[in-house]
Amino acid sequence: MDSSSANVDIKKKQQQEAPTPQNTPIFSAPISGSARPSVPVIEEDMETIQTPGTASLLANNPQLMSMLQGRLGNLVGAPSGYVQTLAPDVRRRVKGLKSLQNKHAVLEAEFQNEILALEKKYLGLYTPLYEKRAEYISGKSEPTEAEVEDGVSDDEEEPEEDEEDEDKDAEKVEGVPEFWLTALKSHPQFADIITEKDEEALKHLVDIRMAYFDKPGFRLDFEFSPNEFFTNTILSKTYYYHDEPGYGGDFVYDHAEGTKIDWKEGKDMSVTVETKKQRHKGTNKTRVVKKT
């Protein structure tokens, strides 16, 4: 399956209804007309204290949402008995309205496909900017003077340099440390779900890229620098949509697949280790017991 990959523009707002992720998944997409799959925290398999409501359950469970969409889709067009009670002339007009709706659905499907094609086109145009952004963040290259000047806001004041700033310069910091952690924590959709435990791993996140497929769907690639938690360099999550559009002409989410995380020993962030001391009644000796 061919795909073109690039980073995700963190300046674009992510819509409430799906996909992407776009990231930062943060694009508006034809796929975005469907129920947006959630981007869970690393501890997505752990129990939570709060009891989610129905809306929250659907938003955080793409599989459940897809199943409900399928079940409800089977009800579309099913007779309710109401139309049969109408006068013959009215029933005839209702059939005409259904014909118009069917034609509208065809146009909507074409509309969504054209938006998707347009997004793919511009993702290719964005790619050089994203690649250069990754170089600046990692410290592989430096921005030009023209870019620096262009990046200064009209209302931005340059801070006065002092001895402390000179000491910081002497440290020779490479790139922009913790750029993606800062970006994600600044985004309203991610700020509340990133825990302190997550931050330790996300400090090593150096790039986020996105790839579209020929068929409806996309992949998010999260690149990490060497860290103490896992050996993977890239963690990917792929979102699949049905080939055929839904009743309204939009893309219908199917399922998602993620990379298996190769955790280092004792560093699995999805597992909570509970440590307890047990005292033997006979010998009065104590021992430490760890339970996951």
UniProtKB/TrEMBL annotation:
Q: Bias category Acidic residues: which stretches?
A: 144-168
- The organism's superkingdom is given as Eukaryota
Instruction: Tell me a GO biological process for this protein.
Output: nucleosome assembly
Q: Which Gene3D superfamilies match?
A: 1.20.5.1500, Nucleosome assembly protein
Basic residues composition-biased segments:
277-292
Task: Give the compositionally biased regions (Polar residues).
Answer: 16-26
Q: Annotated region Disordered: where?
A: 1-36, 138-172, 272-292
GO terms under cellular component:
nucleus
Family statement: Belongs to the nucleosome assembly protein (NAP) family.
Give the protein name, as stated in the record.
Nucleosome assembly protein
Origin species, per record, is Mortierella alpina (Oleaginous fungus)
